[in-house]
Amino acid sequence: MTDSTVVVRVPATSANLGPGFDTLGLALALHDEVEATLYEPSSGGSAETAEVSVEGEGAGEVPLDGRHLIVATMRRTFDRMGLPRPSGIRLRCVNRIPHARGLGSSSAAICAGILAARALAAEPYAAAPRPDGTAPAAPPSPPEFTDDDVFALATEIEGHPDNVGPCLAGGLTVAWTEPSGVPRMAKLLPHADVRPVVLVPEHRLSTETARGLLPASVPHADASANAGRAALLVAALTGRPERELLLAGTEDRLHQGYRAPAMPRTADLVARLRALGIPAVVSGAGPTVLAFSTGDKQDLIAPEVGNDWHIRPLDVETRGACVVSPETR
Ligand SMILES: Nc1ncnc2c1ncn2[C@@H]1O[C@H](COP(=O)(O)OP(=O)(O)OP(=O)(O)O)[C@@H](O)[C@H]1O
Ligand SMILES: N[C@@H](CCO)C(=O)O
Predict the structure, then answer these.
(1) Per-residue pLDDT tens digits for 2-25
(2) How open is the CA angle 167-210-202, to the nearest 5 degrees?
(3) The domain at 4-174+317-325 falls in which architecture?
(4) How far is it, in rounded angstroms, from Cα 285 to Cα 263?
(5) Is 66 marked within a binding site?
(6) Is 102 assigned a ligand-binding role in the annotation?
(7) Residue whose CA is closest, atom 17 of ligand 1?
(8) In the chain, what are the domain boundaries?
(9) From CA 194, how far away is CA 242, in angstroms rounded?
(10) CB of 169 within 8 A of CB of 318?
(11) Which of 44, 132, 194, 273 could potentially form a cystine with 278 if both were Cys, beta carbons 3.0 to 4.6 Å apart?
């Protein structure tokens, strides 16, 4: 059986955008690329095998075996599609999205794994034996695994849809969950004058830690304030952006304040930029800061940022995650 390979390209994302906790997200033109191959291990393979190489972000840190997030996600996707797991998965990862900084690295890895598995399932592959050692059934024809299925599985693995939505669709997404538990999203395109700048610190904060700081309930007035600001922000980002509207539309009372003790330098930088009239928020679960630069205030950003932060102006990515080679779908 011949090896089959796909290359998947996935963007960074910034979630929340201030008031849109677990709802709003924006795709950014900074990408990870993953070459995924299904192969038959030379030993004949009594178990599932994985070989991973990583260049760039996360190199020397993430596991290089079956515990790697993309490998684990690919196996879970084969399970979800009702197909036998492949016996060998080989990954070559070129990572540009910093890890645990609030730029959606885990979401990008999960989306990459699901899209790679879906594309590779379309070709014959060597399947691993079942856990009881018996031979797997011949892979049936791959089932239809829709874009909605991809979004639902990625959200299930990631735990929230606001990074997954823009990672898959590109642009600005509004995500919500149906009463049945099914996640949904609507995609919008921000105005071409929307200019995101991310300010990325060296230090990290895991999403899990940041979520642990949130209270179980919030005052009704705070929820109401955020609803209004989130609606305003969508209008401000999709129309010609006006700084005053972006500033008002990026105010938040639901998460940034509660998380500030875990990222005091981020909270301080957001406060200083906002005092200068620059719309700035915590990107995702932090500690990166996302600012929307507007011509008149742009030059004020750099002097506020310390030497150990990277200032990165990034375009909005309008396309989202895709299989770039071969074009199988
Ligand atoms: N490309 C990748 N390959 C393997 N593991 C990854 C990859 N990207 C992220 N991870 C895993 O996910 C962890 C980071 O996930 P986490 O949810 O804490 O932060 P984030 O996704 O970068 O930020 P946020 O969710 O706030 O935007 C990394 O420490 C690593 O364990
Ligand atoms: N909405 C999520 C984004 C993190 O990826 C959070 O703030 O916890």
Answers:
(1) 789 999 999 999 999 999 999 999
(2) 75
(3) 2-Layer Sandwich (3.30)
(4) 10
(5) no
(6) yes
(7) 207
(8) 4-174+317-325, 190-313
(9) 9
(10) no
(11) 273
With 0-12 / 13-18 / 19 or more C-beta atoms within 10 angstroms meaning exposed / middle / buried, residue 211 is middle
Q: Whats the size of the chain, residue-wise?
A: 329
In degrees and rounded to multiples of 5, residue 151 shows phi and psi of: -60, -45
* Measured distance CA(151)–CA(164) in Å, rounded: 7
Beta-strand runs (E) in 118-262: 172-177, 183-188, 196-201
Contact 223, 23 (CB under 8 A): no
Question: Tokens in use for 198?
Answer: 């991310």
Sign of the Cα pseudo-torsion (82, 88, 94, 96, in order): positive
On whether the 190-313 domain is CATH 3.30.160.250, my answer is no
State the pLDDT at residue 42.
81
Which candidate, 237, 243, 197, places its Cα nearest to that of 14?
Answer: 197
- Token match 């291990």: residue? 41
- Alpha carbon distance 94, 222 (integer Å): 41
Q: Residue 114: which of 75, 86, 143 has the closest Cα?
A: 75
- Tell which residue, 184, 247, 181, 185, has the closest CA to residue 26: 185
Cis peptide bond upstream of 264, omega within 30: no
The reply to whether ligand 2 has any atom less than 6 angstroms from the CB of 21 is yes
Task: Convert the pLDDT of each residue in 57-86 to its tens digit.
Answer: 999 999 999 999 999 999 999 999 999 999
Question: Rounded distance, CA 89 to CA 70, Å?
Answer: 10
207 C-beta closer than 6 A to ligand 2: yes
> What pLDDT, in 10s, does the model give residues 215-230?
999 999 999 999 999 9
Residue of minimum CA distance from atom 6 in ligand 2: 285
pLDDT of 325: 83
Amino acid in position 285:
A
- Looking at residue 175, its amino acid is A
Q: Give strand pairing partners of 198.
A: 290, 312
